[in-house]
Amino acid sequence: GQSYEIRMLDNRKIGELPELNGKLVKSIFRVVFHDRRLQYTEHQQLEGWRWNRPGDRILDIDIPMSVGIIDPRANPTQLNTVEFLWDPSKRTSVFIQVHCISTEFTMRKHGGEKGVPFRVQIDTFKENENGEYTEHLHSASCQIKVFKPKGADRKQKTDREKMEKRTPHEKEKYQPSYETTILTEVG
């Protein structure tokens, strides 16, 4: 339920795709499973979630906080997907909210579970000659884990404690933490 900002940036090189100048593009955001084994059963997992949480969505756009998004839509049958249009030449920030937690998809449920990692994936499309946004431009994603506030605080504390016990050589294997995450381009 917490709102997180994702800044949409035009990452074209100078002179690349001039046909996009002055045009809108469509981005589709999805929350999907990061683990391969859960990707195979994603449909059943999401159906189970829908059954247990009637009327709830997995992903929403916090419209009042967002800037520069046009025609935001959430398809009632795709609980993990939202989409909107935006102008790459203007400042655009979308604030998303994820309404399910990582432990809702773990097998054992007696507290202290690891929680499954999710991935936020963003696919961006331009218009074809019929005015439909079907021509793929770019895809990017990053891994996320979603916890309730107390659980998130506890996880950060135990992660910090674990890191403090490691040797400097062992610490080198881990990424440092950052204020912002640059999403990784998906091929």
Automatic annotation (TrEMBL):
Keywords, sorted A to Z: DNA-binding, Nucleus
Region (Disordered): 148-187
Coiled-coil residues: none
Classification via InterPro entries: CP2 (IPR007604), TF_CP2-like (IPR040167)
A Gene Ontology cellular-component term: nucleus
Annotated compartments: Nucleus
Compositional bias of kind Basic and acidic residues: 150-174
Chain intervals with Polar residues compositional bias: 177-187
Primary location recorded for the protein, binned into one broad class: nucleus
Domain Grh/CP2 DB: 1-187
One function term, GO molecular function aspect: DNA-binding transcription activator activity, RNA polymerase II-specific
PANTHER family (UniProt xref): ALPHA-GLOBIN TRANSCRIPTION FACTOR CP2, TRANSCRIPTION FACTOR CP2
Protein name, per record: TFCP2 factor
Protein species of origin: Piaya cayana
Primary gene name: Tfcp2
